[in-house]
# Entry
Amino acid sequence: MSNLKTLDHAAAAEIFIKDEARTDWHDDTLWFVRQKRDKAVHGIAEWEQLREWASEIKNHTLSNLDNYLIAFEKQAEANGIKIHWAADALEHNQLMHKILKDNNISRIVKSKSMLTEECHLNDYLKKQGIEVVDTDLGERIVQLRDEAPSHIVLPAIHLKKQDVSETFHEHLHTEEGNNDPQYLTEAARQHLRDHFIQSELAITGVNFAIAETGGFVVCTNEGNADMGAHTAKIHVACMGIEKIIPKTEHLGVFLRLLARSATGQPITTYSSHFQKPRSGQEMHIIIVDNGRTKQLGRADFRNSLKCIRCAACFNTCPVYRRSGGHSYHTAVAGPIGSILNPNLDMKANADLPFASTLCGSCSNVCPVKIDIHEQLWKWRQVIVEEGYVKPEKKIAMKGMAWLFSNPKVYRWAGKSGRWFLRTMPFLGNNKLNVWYKQREMPEAPKQSFHDWYQQNKNK
Amino acid sequence: MSSREKILATCTANKPALVDLPQLSDEHLTHYDDKIAQFKLILEGIGGKVVALENIEQVKEEIAIHKQSGEFVVDTVFNTDDALKAQTSFDLERVDRAYLQATLGVAENGSVWLYEAQMGNRLLPFICQHLFIVLDKATLVDNMYQAYQKLQVQETGFGVFIAGPSKTADIEQSLVIGAHGARSLTVYLV
# Structure
C-alpha cells in the first residue's frame, strides 16, 4: 500500500544505522543465523541435488499453474474444505470478514502468515472493530508494540530482550526489568494459552498446498498453528497461488530445504499436514492472487514466484543486515521482497531494487535457485526506463554513461579526481558528497591502472 | 468474471511453456549405516530425548506410576479411548503427559510421523505438557523421500511430523523450549 510509505529505503536505513552499536548487533545476529544455515547445509551431501529438484519442481508447477490450481480445488472440496478465490488484498480481507460475520465470531487467533501481512488483514479487521490475536511469539511481540514484523521468519529480530521485557511489562504485567527470555516466553505461553483455548476461529498460512491430494502443510516451531487450528470450530488458511506443488512426494524435497535454509534446523518442530476438517469443524482456504499472475507473465521476474519464504536471502544480505527490515517498508523485506514488491506497486517500491550490493550472495543461498541479484539488476533497468528514479540520480546516471563512453574525458576526470583527493581531501570528505556518507573516501593512487598498463605492457 | 475465473484465465495466458517434472530418486540421497545412532544424534541435538527400551512393558509401568501419582495421563498406545475425540481444549489443557505411538521415524532429521488415529484427538500432541512417543526402531527410514514413499498422507484427515519439543528463539535468538506446545519430547525406541 503506497500510502503507508513515508520514507524510502535509504532514508529509513539512515535512521536505523545512527545507532551504531545496535546496527552491529543486528548484523551479527543475522550473520549467526546465516552461519547456522551453512552448518546445516554442509551436513547434507545431496544439498545441490535437492536445490536442483526444488527449482525444477517449481519451474514445472509454474508452467502448469492453472491446471494444478483447478486440481487442488477439486480435491480439497472433495475433502470437505471450502475454497474461496481472491483477486487482490482487499477481496481477501472482505472474504475473511464475511466468514467472521456469517458465523458471528469474535475470538480469533492467527499463526504467522506473511500473506495476511501483505494484505494488511489485521488493520482491515481492526477498522471493522474486530481484533485478531497473533500467536507466533515474535509476531505477538511486534503486534503488542503496534509494529510490523521486520523479518519473515524472525519477526522480532530487530528487538533486544530489554525491549521485549518492557513491552510485556506494559501489556502482560510481567516483572519490570526481568529480561530473562525463558521467563518472558513462559509469560507469553500462559497469556496465549487462554486465547487458544477460547478461540472460535483460527487463521493460518500455508507453506505448501498439494494439487494431487487437496491437502496443505503448515510448518511451525512453536506449535501455535496447531493449537489454534485444532481448537477452533473454523480454520481459515490463506495461501498465495504460488504455494502449490504437484504431489506429496515433493514435500520430501521442500521440507528438507526449508528449515535448514531458514534457521539451520534439520526440519521445523511441527510439519502439519491438513487434509480434511475434523468432525464438526469447518475448514476454508482463501486462494489469493494479488499481483502473482501478473508476475507470472513477466519472464524476467517469474522466477521470484518460486520463493518458499525461508529468508536465507535476508540473513546473508549485507544491506538487509545493516539497514533492518523496517527500512524496506513492505511486508516481505530483504532481497526477495525487493523483487516482489515492485510488481505490486512499482512507483511506491522503486527504491527497493537499489537496496542491494548485487553481490550475488542471496542467489547463492536460495534453496530454489531464484536468480535474485540478477532480477534486482533487471528491476533497476525497468524502473529507470519507466522514470521512477529521483531526478538527481537520473542526471548522475546519464552523466556517468556519457563519461564512460568518452575515454579521453574519463581519463582526464580520473586524473584530476586523484589529484584533488590527494592534495585537497576536504573536497571529497564533506557532507555535500553523498558518497562520503557512512564511508571513508579511499586513498587516491598516484597512477591509474590505464597508465600503469601503458607503461608496463611491453616489458 | 468471477475472481476464480479471472485468476485462472490470467494464469493460462501468462504461464510459460510446459517444463518437465524432475524424477526424484532415493539413489542420490544419503543412507545411514546406523539409522538409530543418526536419529538419536539429530533428535537430541534439537532438544528431544531418545530412550532405547528392552521391551514395551517398561512404558506400561511408567504410565501406571504416573497415573497413580495423580497426574493427568492420556495413553493411546495401550488404550483406545473414543471419548478422547470429543474432548475440548478446556479438557485437554490439563493433560500432563500424553503417550502416543508413531508410524515411523526419520534418521536424517530426527522427526516422527503420527496419523490422526494415533493421536486420538488432533490437539493432544500439541496441548499436552509432556509428550512421549513410542517408536518401533524397525520403522526408521533414512530420509524424507523414503518417509513419503511409506506414508498414505491423503488417507487421514490430519498427520504431522514432530521433531522435538515446542521451541522458539524469538527473543534475541535465545533458544527457549516450551513455547506453546509440549515442553518436552521423549521417544521410546522399542
Observations:
- Chain B touches chain A through 74 residues (CB under 8 Å).
- The mean pLDDT of chain B is 96.
